[in-house]
From TrEMBL:
The gene is mfnA. This is Tyrosine decarboxylase MfnA. The keyword Lyase applies. One of its GO terms (molecular function) is tyrosine decarboxylase activity. It comes from the Bacteria. Its cofactor is pyridoxal 5'-phosphate. The lineage of its organism: Bacteria, Bacillati, Actinomycetota, Actinomycetes, Kitasatosporales. InterPro entries: GrpII_AminoAcid_Decarb (IPR050477), MfnA (IPR020931), PyrdxlP-dep_de-COase (IPR002129), PyrdxlP-dep_Trfase (IPR015424), PyrdxlP-dep_Trfase_major (IPR015421), PyrdxlP-dep_Trfase_small (IPR015422). Gene3D superfamilies: Aspartate Aminotransferase, domain 1, Type I PLP-dependent aspartate aminotransferase-like (Major domain). It comes from Streptomyces asiaticus subsp. ignotus. Its EC number is 4.1.1.25. It holds the Pfam family Pyridoxal_deC. Residues 1-23 are annotated as: Disordered. Keywords: Decarboxylase, Lyase, Pyridoxal phosphate.
Amino acid sequence: METLLGSSTFPAETGSLPEHGRAPDTVLEELRELCRDDHDYAGGTVFNSICSAPLDIARRVFAQHLDANMGDNRVFPSLRRAEADLSAMFGELLGHPGAVGVTTSGGTEANLLVVLAAVRRYHDRHGGSGPARIVLPESAHFSFDKIVGMLPVEPVYAPLDDRLRVRPEELTRLVTADTALVVATAGTSEAGAVDDVPAVAEHTAALGVPLHVDAATGGFLIPFARELGYDLPPFAFDVPGVTSVALDPHKYGGVPIPSGHLLLRDRADAELLRTASHYRGTFDHHGLLGTRPGAAVLAAWAVLRTLGRSGYRELVKEVFTRRDLLLGMLRDAGFTTAMEPQLTVVTVRHPEPARLVDALERRGFIASVARRYGLLRLVVHWHQTAEQLRGLVDAMAAADGPWEGGRA
Ligand SMILES: *Cc1c(COP(=O)(O)O)cnc(C)c1O
């Protein structure tokens, strides 16, 4: 079996456009074949994904509104209302009901918009078009690798502590009054590490430097986990000095892809992102993408209203309970976790994590290696049952014996 670790793979064999169309049933049959190797979240084999299956209500809404286009909010006025409602709901969740919000395709686009706004603000204030300095944790999501390659910025990286959180005192040493933006992460996707946002914000607020919190992974977990009594720091607008937050409803929000949201404390920051429409009566855009599925926005709206706060609290309680169950199973099977997890990502120390992951893949399970840290990484999500976690740990123990194919 082919493994994709660390590679960029384009399939060698491709289909072609048939001269004459085929019957839908024939195409659906071909499609089944095309999707033969795809995993079903419900099957208990997916342990690398921060995304999961959306709620049933989301599937219905998405299918009903397949033509809704966020790029043309004149044809679909519902979309602007839904976007405003979502911003209000997320703003409330994040401690600032008056936050201005922009729906995005995900965390990557939300982070890109924040950096773009920071660059524009920096050039407005300091003149010129030179690189704007942004300070990020070494753990910053790889969307920032893309972003710093696209925009005129000079990234500076702050080191981490032994639980892979940024060291606030080291980060603040890198921040001066002319820093264009500081980034902190509330839940890294590699290890679920939650930065000490209050400690960072104290310094940035004193200097008047904007602070963006990338809560793509933690945004739907931390508020409810805090309500449930888990010891996690505040990370959003209830912390003075936090100027923007990105969150991804398509991760722990139960919402279909593509769904991200950028929230801004200050309306003036939204102005920095405005692009005037060329058409009279069509509203201006604040995001990067033009045509994009309004169905995802309506589905997000429907999911939030279906679950409510108590629904999310139940889901979060469930997923944290499963995480603790997995930790116990791993310990009993003799595996060593790399650190006490803050959220739902469990990292395991192993002499050869890539070989263990390959051996698991041969047994049908998808786990991953956090390459920057050399750790085996397991993501707990609500698509996994207790028996399926047992299945994973049994497979790990079996695969960890003599390697199939011989141990090096
Ligand atoms: C997933 C993630 C992103 C990127 O979001 P996409 O929705 O994949 O574009 C950014 N930051 C963090 C911390 C993430 O977990």
